[in-house]
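Task card 7
Instruction: Convert sequence to structure tokens.
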Amino acid sequence: MAEGPDHPLPGTLIRCYCLLMLMWALGGCIPTHAPAPPRIVRPTEQQTPVLVGINYSHTIGTPGTAPLEFLAPAGLAIDVQERLYVADAGNHRLQVLSRDGGFVAEYGNQGWRPGQFDTPMDVAIQDASLYIADAGNNRIQACFLTDWNFRVVAGADADADAALDTPHGVAVDAAGAIYIADTEHHRWMKLNVDGHLQFRLGAFGWQQEEFQYPTDIILDAEHHIFVVDSQNHRIQKFDFSGSFLRAWGMRGEGPGEFKHPTSLALDRWQRVYVVDAGNRRIQVFDTDGNFLTQGIHPSLISPSGIVVGRDGTIYVSDAEAGNIKVFQSVYRGSSETPQPPFSR
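Output:
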């Protein structure tokens, strides 16, 4: 298994942000128009609705350093009260927003002590605990949402077997095990609830179980693990033990193709939403990688992080624009043939 470079790169915004800027520079064409979408239907608890498109709704925030302002926003998460958590990477902090996009609180500043961050790139919530991929400090921090006392749970001075280099992604399962996209080591790993390494997988390359800058990781309801293999322009899927199951995607602009994907999320029906950053769009798949639909909007410049609420609201951080774009899932609600979600 290949390890990372012999010397660490500076823990700065430039270090983590360069991949996003490359994706933006190589982005696809912006559509000039979009046909009228099918009407939005709110699904009930019993339905498994047919997703036919993604519509832009509105934008939250502006670039800057004040509350509700962002610099290179990255990973996103939602808690049970539908509050939105934003890894505000360029401001080295975490911002918490209400369901309607109002400012609630902010935590952290630039530094290396617990509760301080250097370019936080992702955030995950499991029960009453929050986890942050503190990329520039090469570690994962965690806290309880009841006290906000942060502690290091991986990297830095934690388990030496789980040393990290610029981790961009973090996820947590119901048992408290931690999954990390160890970006510049070109691998992912699983730690137990105490932060001790259970296994790690990957090396630099383009073959099965190899990676070029993995940038995000999530788990579905059946404990499958999905990893964004960013510079191989694909998603890799593994079972609970780390055994490879499948991969999908290649460099391109068509459905199921990617240019530097950055992150992914699941909705409540286990559909996989992928931020296709270089093509400036969101693509949606089933958990076997079958393409379902896609969405785009001219204001989407450099999409980075994504999370999907229980009501189908999709939040996408836009690193270059310094804001959060809000989209709405569109479900088939009549016998009419739905219009395409967008055209190029």
